[in-house]
Amino acid sequence: MKKIFATGLSIVLSLPLWAQGGTNSPYSQFGLGILARQSAGFNRGMNGLAYGFHENDKVNFQNPASYSAIDSLTFIFDAGVSLQITNFEEKGHRKNARNSSIEYAVAAFRAFKHLGVSFGFLPYSNVGYNFQNTENINAFPNPSSQSATFSNTFSGSGGLHQVYLGIGWEPIRNLSIGANASYLWGELNRDVVNSYSDKNISTLSKSYITSVASYKVDLGLQYTQKINRKNQVTLGLIYSLGNKLNANPECHVISRNSQTLISDTTSYVIHKALELPQTFGGGVTWNYSNQLKLGFDYQIQKWAKIAMPQFTVVNGVADYKLVGGQFNDRQLFTLGGEFTKGDRHRSFLGRMHYRAGISYATPYLKIEGQDGPREISASVGVGIPIMNNYNNRGLLNISCEWFNRQANNFIKENVFRINIGLTFNERWFAKFKVE
């Protein structure tokens, strides 16, 4: 038990060091960044399938109603990390980037009869990119001089993270309801620098800084209908409140004389800006004898009406304000499943879990008036039993995921990710009989 606590403590202490390393994508310069795939180790093997999973030995934080199924004798701790390689392609040019990050750290236990509790850490979004383009121009203000070059450098870092506390309750047999209340925080940093080879032209840079400290509320419902002795179907529904983040995005425009090194700064701020979208989701999972589980999930995030800060110059007048039309509503379709022989007490292979899933997400970004990238992904995974002389209830979850982000005339991304998660399922509340 001490080893488990030590492992959990080391993960929690290292979260600030790892949480912002989740992406190198240029698409993270838009909106709140690249949205994190908020799923646990067992979900990731099924590409995030979750809404209809009502498990007594796993933490399914994507639908808080599932907490009511937690075994009354156990305390569950689950944590996961990921390693990924991204291949970027644009106009025949290719480049690879590597990332690693802690994905989640969660726990759950049963507090009372038919009532489970869960808490943990999750990423919400990631910002991380650094790229540059250089072009030739006629030097200004002296058009008669030789050709000069200008460079645009784009960089960003940060992201949003959340800690949550949730409960799941079964007030009526087979019907469960639940809620997660989260604290959402983080900082989004983005910089654009325009520099020139001609030292007579000043360097112009724009620095965007946004600090977030707000809340997030997610609701869930699950209903299980038993068809016969071996077959049952679970319907899951989720809803996330759309709420304002009340952040104060800042924009600092800095003009720096390349010869005298004197800088002139103009600052702008928008008060009580940014918001989260309303999210609706539903799913159904078919369970055959706790051996074969197949399911389908659908989710829609209502981004289209949300405005984001934008720096504009119209007729020579600069302004920093909220501008709409930068998003589409995002729809996500997921199909997946899991198979195990269900021989939980006899053999190693009999307790193995085999998982697979696919999904498709519609574009939610609008870039220069055009739809941004759509996303196709697929995953396979296994749950490997941790065999010991104590309870044989732990699992090592390993999965491989492939993502493809692509849009016409924009950068294409292929992401290959390995997820590793450990589920410790300890019998804390069992009564032992001594003879």
TrEMBL record:
Q: What UniProt keywords apply to this chain's record, in alphabetical order?
A: Signal
The answer to whether the entry has keyword Signal is yes
Q: Which SUPFAM superfamilies match?
A: Porins
Look up the signal peptide feature and give its range: 1-19
Q: What is this protein called?
A: Outer membrane protein beta-barrel domain-containing protein
